[in-house]
Fold:
Amino acid sequence: MKSIVVFHVICSLLIESNAFTPSHHLSHQKFIHNTSTKICAAPVEALSDIVIPNVFNFGGHSISEEDLAKEDPRVWVPQTDCLSFRPLCLCTSQGYYVNLLKFKGGGVLGRHRHSSPVHAFTLKGGWGYVEHEWHADQGTYVFEPPGETHTLIVDEDCEEMITLFHVTGSLLYVDEKTDEVIGFDDVFSKLEKAKKWYKECGLGEDYVQQFVR
Ligand SMILES: [Fe+2]
Structure:
């Protein structure tokens, strides 16, 4: 809960200070882009994304081995072989969720379109989108506007990536070539996935209810 509050405070401060750097002003080299098949990241009416590196430069926060050992690995809900998520707030009353997304090693989250805004705060490792040139390293804040459509990619040499995502509305999985909708995620599908996993792993289906608002 504390981390969510801190995240929201950071977002508010940044919005008020107008201290954003449009992503097209940043250049990164980690991803190779196929320029022969230009992929559209958003409708022309959509706002530009925001990428701010090094948001947390607090002087090296670290977790003790003792605290690390206390974490129950079952809180992480498996989503694919390399991807899992940890729900922090599943807000069914307002249609958004806040979760930690974790990739073990490199991986991809298929191309998807957001109906509503997304805030992302990179806590560990790095990631990016095939459709964008920027790379979100540890400490990077990213705002994704409604309409944004992208394919999340984590570098193969990244041992572990953890990012806090605040996702409002629907995340529509689309066909890579046609952009036809082929699936979706929202706070309710995330809730169902968490319930299913917590039941399977022995924490109990109701374990997730502490995160629902
Ligand atoms: Fe996304």
In short: Residues 90 and 212 are 5 Å apart (CA to CA). Residues 112, 114, 118, 150, 152, 171 surround fe (ii) ion (CB under 6 Å). The chain has three helices and 13 strands. The radius of gyration is 17 Å.
